[in-house]
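Blinded run. Sample ID left blank on purpose so nobody reads anything into the name before looking at the predicted structure. Input follows.
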Amino acid sequence: MSSAIDPEIKTSFDNNDHELDSSNMSNNSPSQPQDPDPEKQSPVQTNIIEVPDGGYGWFIVIAVFCFNVATWASNSAFAIYLAHYLKENKFEGATKIDYAAIGGIAFGVGLFCAPAIIYFIGITGPRTCIIVGGCFQFSGIMLAAFSTKLWQLYLTQGLLISYGLAFVCIPANILLPQWFRKKRSLAQALSASGSGAGGVMFNLAMQHIIEIKSVKWALITQAIICAVVTGIGCALTRTRNEHVKPTFQFYDIEVITKFGFWIMSFWIATTLLGYVVILYNLADFTRSLGYSGSQGSIVSCMISVGVFFGRPTIGQLSDKFGAVSVAMWAHLLVAIFCFGMWIPLRNYASAIAFAIIVGSLMGTIWAVLGTIVSRIVGLRKLATTLGSLWVIIGIFGTVSPLIGIQLRSSPGAGQEYSPIQYQHPAIWCGVCYFAAAMSLWIMRGYLIARDEIAEEQNSHMDNGELHIKVPFKKIFGKMFVLSKLRKV
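Blinded prediction complete.
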């Protein structure tokens, strides 16, 4: 009998093992009557996917670290270009809305095609997809250096860079969950800190090059750095698809009809609506206090310093206490600092402190996204689900800069700067992060309630447990209790 069993799948029926969970209900014979009460369903066969939790997985951490340097870190440097464009008015006829729109396009438009990119990954593999993305990104940044008209900037620093980011970061984000389980949040946080390390480099270096040379040479340098770093990550990329057997579809109807998917979508939407506003505007906010562009770039750089040191800490805490719980508190703290520190902020030292504190917390989503998604839908449906969620990220990442720049007020008559220009964006970001924290609180109650039902069915999270129906009354009741079965 043992020869007929897939060597990568361990089958267990031990009702006392808290780590197990149920496979698809389709394993039940159709001739047997099904109990409509999910809490009374009989245990079903459980399939556990073998995960090494290390080994070559640490090289995958380095690879994804490189991809984050080349994508999100590179993208964060737009704050420097945005502040420069707003001051110099380099492109004839351009308004602050145009520049904000370009930043939004660069962040999110390429992600609209995430389901198609996921399907492309299924056909060609992640490495080919990343190479395509690297070519898009290099072309976009290099051509932006030679752009002289606004429409050219829309196509290069906006559209081409956006597709480069999407074709690199989407396959990168499905790699790590295949290699880690117990240390999954830590591995993701370490790789996500690449956007912090790269952000420090890009923000300081590009500002310096702009000052001593020009925007053109800053963009040329950035293009070369991104191409080299992407190449290093690509050389290290490996998958465990033969073991995990993931699905690569445009969408999964079973996933998008479940409560877990929609509460994740709300969390992502509200987070992005605040995250991009803070990311892109702290450099210009510093200038609104009367400081120089160089000082603004340093404040923007401090976000990346916070990211570099904060995300590994978030990852360790998530593995110890649960990704959803840690993310909930991190989002709530960002809201508190936006209300309590950003609104009354009036000096350079406080701006640096605010950037470091908020930078360490506001990007928690990138440290725990893969962990939370795999927790809710399982490893096999991870790629397809992320494809749908990247569309949400793209939509709200695109509109966020427009909202932020519209909320920014103009200085009074005869004034070049005003310290209250960013009062409304600060309130907006606080509200968004508070809403995100509340959605994570509800998600936490949902998972605790579902875990209790899954425990009675002898199930394991690798299979997603999407078939388990959780009553809303039970969800809200479990928001106020500690999880006794699994980390949430």
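Unblinding after everyone has recorded impressions. The longest strand covers residues 9-12.
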